[in-house]
Specification:
Shape: globular
Largest sheet: 6 strands, parallel
Order of helices and strands: EHEHEHHEHHHEHEHHHEEE
CATH topology of the largest domain: Rossmann fold
Strand order of the largest sheet: 1-4-3-2-5-6
Distance between the termini: 31 Å
Radius of gyration: 19 Å
CATH superfamily of the largest domain: HUPs
Length: 287
């Protein structure tokens, strides 16, 4: 595996590969890689001639400076995992390489960015769009791989590709979970053993809520999920919204969509966890 730190170095290598008509698969990450990331990498390796994985902690998408400061950085271990997954290139730039000047671009995604994460993390998706568009411009992949845990982000990235007419295929990959059901996330490394055990109730509660759709209204089911999770010591729901899986707009009733998705953010201490459930369907079928 090649470890490359500069744009010029990466583009020199990729120009040779593209000149040989090789397809490029790309996995953008912020590092602290876990098995969920590695599944994305394996998909990129299997589906393309050349696989590129970026490791870049993007300061523009953090609302909370402490969250940026505390974000885990494990480059040596990340590179070992990428080697084991047969990735071809790890692109690990410094902030100055990605942003030689402040990025003042403003993206607009309409109602996709004003709900859920957008409501509680203003500016977050603009930061995501800045870095993803920058990386796409650098790598110019044929396909890019994203996990479905970040459900709203996936919708934003799809909208970004359409807005900029990039012609990149966005491949959505199912959530990878720990043994207890907790969605894998780099932030899980900050959980204590007790917090991790308690946080397993998030997906357990979401799964149980699927069976209640026939007997509860949308609002009642939202309240049921929130109260169940808030009853667990040390957990606090920031939001739980049942939305249309395509528009991300809140549902008034189950008949409003044929693709209802429940999206949730929960604090376990000061660690913020997100998850989602696609009601009545396999998540892969949405995308």
């Amino acid at each position: 595996m090649k470890l490359i730190h500069t744009i010029a170095g990466l583009q020199t290598v990729l120009a040779q590969e593209k000149g040989a008509k090789k397809s490029i698969g790309f996995v953008p990450t912020m590092g602290a890689l876990h098995p969920g990331h590695i599944e994305l990498v394996k998909r990129a390796v299997a589906g393309n001639d050349v696989s590129v994985v970026s490791i870049f902690v993007n300061p523009n998408q953090f609302n909370n400076p402490d969250d940026l400061l505390n974000y885990p950085r494990t480059l040596a271990a990340d590179c070992e995992r990428l080697e084991a997954a047969a990735a071809d290139i790890a692109f690990v730039p410094e902030v100055e390489e990605i942003y030689p000047e402040p990025d003042r671009r403003r993206f607009h995604f309409g109602s996709l960015e004003t709900v859920m994460e957008g409501r509680f993390r203003p500016g977050h998706f603009n930061g995501v769009a800045q870095v993803v568009s920058r990386l796409f411009d650098i790598v110019k992949p044929d396909r890019a791989y994203f996990g479905e845990k970040d459900f709203q982000q996936l919708a934003i990235v799809r909208a970004l590709v359409e807005q900029l007419a990039l012609g990149i295929e966005i491949v959505a990959c199912p959530i990878v979970r720990e043994e207890g059901g907790l969605a894998m996330s780099s932030r899980n490394a900050r959980l204590t053993a007790t917090q991790r055990e308690r946080a397993a109730c998030i997906f357990k509660t979401l799964s149980e809520s699927d069976a209640l759709r026939g007997s509860l209204s949308v609002r009642a089911l939202e309240q049921w999920v929130v109260s169940r999770i808030n009853a667990v010591a040390g957990l606090e729901v920031e939001y739980f919204d049942i939305v249309d899986g395509c528009t991300l707009q809140p549902l008034n009733g189950w008949a409003d969509t044929n693709c209802p998705v429940g999206c949730i953010a929960v604090y376990a201490g000061d660690v913020r966890l997100i998850d989602n459930i696609v009601y009545g369907k396999n998540p892969v079928s949405i995308f």
